[in-house]
Amino acid sequence: MEAKKIIYSGIQPSGVITLGNYVGAISNWLELQKSEDTQCIYSIVDMHSLTVRQDPAELRKRTLSFFAQYLACGLDPDKNIMYIQSHVSEHAELCWILNCFTYVGEASRMTQFKEKSAKHADNVNMGLMDYPILMAADILLYNTSLVPIGIDQKQHLEMARDIAARFNNIYGDVFTVPEGYIPTTGAKVMSLQDPTSKMSKSDPDENATIMLIDDNDAIRRKIKRAVTDSDSRVYLSDEKPGIKNLLTIYASCNGISLEDAEKACTDMNYGTFKTAVADSVVNVLEPIRNRYLDIVGDKEYIMKVAREGAERAKSIAFRTMRKVYKKVGFVER
Ligand code: TYM
Predict the structure, then answer these.
(1) Which of 147, 254, 279, 295 has its CA 20 to 30 A from that of 287?
(2) Whose CA is nearest to atom 9 of ligand 1?
């Protein structure tokens, strides 16, 4: 019997899960879990979120809330391995090994490292630079073939591939070199207030992002206020980033191409168009929010799923580490 194809991805528990995270990543996770030939592994990467200062109580609460949101989206704990990164200590162990096979130059060239260093100038800690190497460890621990992500993580995935190939070159075939899986529409959903920058989980302007668990009124209000342009016709153009973003959201929420979204909406005025976009988003998010409200209070259930997931993840991660330690020449315990 052929081994199942491993799919791995995660979200860090910072800010809030946004429509961007859903469209760019989670919607593909939901598709990939359907196949009998895949083993999907989805984590909440809490260790990554420590690269910026966190309030401990808040972080704990947010991690469980994010886990409940995974479940509410329809990720199936019977089919997938779902767990919290810090529950599997092998992530930190492999990160150390991979650090010794990564050059400071390549890590410091990462766009996100440069951006975050500028944004948190008073806290440019080692973790910030090590962030993509920990991400490489996440992926390589499980012999992952496919990593469903948005376009902003593409550079980090390239780095994971480089590190895997470098390690394999020295020690033989240890790691699977992973491929990225990036959606054709919705790989980068933009801010509703500044459609030239990414919709971000930690944007302080709450009108800029739609949260996965926003209520219907909030969704409608935010889309109504979305920045567009002084034109009045709906069509795709790089000169109309606000409209392009709303068309992207419309297309993703209706499971159609950007071109078909343009065709469907081109006769609408901006008011009607925004209502149509809001309706599509509400259709997708309302059931998720309702399920979330059912699940989030049941901490026992969430922890049961997280614990079982961590056990399953650990049994794979442990085997990888044993192999890696042997390859690099550590004495077996
Ligand atoms: P994070 O937590 O920033 O984002 C989670 C996922 O959502 C995607 N995404 C978007 N997609 C479309 N439009 C947007 N506006 C948007 N914003 C975010 C991201 O590309 C990502 O897929 N380093 C990762 C987490 C991580 C990871 C991993 C991912 C850690 N280890 C291993 C895959 C595999 C991150 O910070 O994503």
Answers:
(1) 147
(2) 21
Contact criterion met (CB below 8 Å) for 210 and 192: yes
What is the atom index within ligand 1 of the atom nearest the CA of 149? 22
Residue 198 appears among annotated catalytic residues: yes
CA of 266 to the centre of ligand 1 (A): 31
Round the average pLDDT of the chain to a whole number and report it. Answer: 97
pLDDT of the residue at 1: 58
Euclidean distance between CA atoms 144 and 177, whole angstroms: 8
Q: Tell me the three state secondary structure of residue 236.
A: coil
Query: 276-283 long-range CB contacts below 8 Å, 24 or more apart?
Result: 276/250, 277/223, 277/246, 277/249, 277/250, 277/253, 278/219, 278/220, 278/223, 278/224, 280/249, 280/250, 280/253, 280/254, 281/19, 281/210, 281/219, 281/223, 281/249, 281/253, 282/216, 282/219, 282/220, 283/253
Check pLDDT > 80 for residue 2. no
